[in-house]
Amino acid sequence: MLCDLTLILVTLASVVLARPQSYAVWAADSGIARGQGNGLDTRGRAIVSYEHGEFQWGLRQLYELTGNQTYFHYIVEGVDNIVFDNGTVHGSYTVTDFVLDPLRTGPTFLYLYEETGKSKYKLAADIFRGQLNAHPRTAQGQFWHKLKYPNQGWLDGVYMGEIFYAQYTSRFQPDNTTAWADITSQFQLMFENTIQNATAPNNTGLLYHGYDFSHKQVWASPDRGHSPEVWDRALGWFSMALVDILEVISTTNPGHNTILDILRTLAPRIRDAADPATGAWWLVITQPGRAKNYFESSGTAMFVYALLKAVRLGYVVDNDGSIVAAARKAYAYMTENWVVSNSDGTMNWLNTVIDPQVGSLDTTGDFDYYVSQPTNLNDLKGLAAFVLASLEYERLQN
């Protein structure tokens, strides 16, 4: 009897500790177990957070793939923590702050409206859409990243604002040609103002973190006002925005080809910027191998997601297989170096550089600035990106 009981306990323990075969499921379940991405901050207060929106996008895909209601219920819980029954968005969100970051939760509002029909989610989405009507812009028409950063466009902001803008337009204003042209312009202006030119030092042909159209910031270049370095996560946000927007904007819309051309320009350059030995990407891509630089996990995961999705959906033709091979190599490095198994069956995620300090271009924006910021254990920006990268990798495997 004792031997039988011991066997049962050992068996139960192995079930508890056994991790899912899917890294996407393992990462998502670990985040849920820690209460991450549920519309609350670490003190249990409501917060409208872009990284929660990023995580919810991964959970939505997992729900649609697996049918596991846990993911859907967690999405609902997260949004209900920041949206009152009358549709008011709370959790420190204020329209007149004019910040693009909170709008990343907007796609979840639209999704829940479609799934449940509850008007509060539509009303919440309307509030976000109303912000864009009054959001300040540069003279060229680029949304400022934040009101407190006048005339600054950041790569991050395109992921935060334009996916929601496009999804809202597709659902409620599909014939609004002005809106579609505006959405396309946001991508085009960002690309043109931040692309490294042939004469740039440490030229990768990729995109600087952001630009100041007024040229007033200490870091603003004389030509276009761009910042001095290519930061991996900023480029990662923009790369994910490219592949996600192309699923929303119709192929008959002229903006589709404009955005597609940007993706096709950047994808092989992103591939080529990976470290040849490891396959990962440096925190500061323009300074590979420099002392204090390191391989950063959130940007690497974002690139794997964007590259694999671009090939899977036929946006980028990978004739020689080098883009998929690069993503495979990077993914292997991620799982070997940044995933740590815990005794409770969850996983930890390593090497994601923190925000908000490193996300801001309100200081020097130079190499020393980026590498001075610490990394964060289980940072949701990186964990959510790993969920997304794993979803694409597992689709590739299957």
TrEMBL record:
Superkingdom: Eukaryota
Protein name (record): Glycoside hydrolase family 105 protein
Signal peptide start and end residues: 1-18
Keyword match Repeat: no
Pfam short name (any one): Glyco_hydro_88
UniProt entry tagged with the keyword Iron: no
Keyword entries, A-Z: Hydrolase, Signal
GO biological process, one term: carbohydrate metabolic process
SUPFAM superfamilies associated with the record: Six-hairpin glycosidases
GO function term, MF aspect, one: hydrolase activity
UniProt cross-references to InterPro entries, sorted A to Z: 6-hairpin_glycosidase_sf (IPR008928), 6hp_glycosidase-like_sf (IPR012341), Glyco_hydro_88 (IPR010905), PolySaccharide_Degr_Enz (IPR052043)
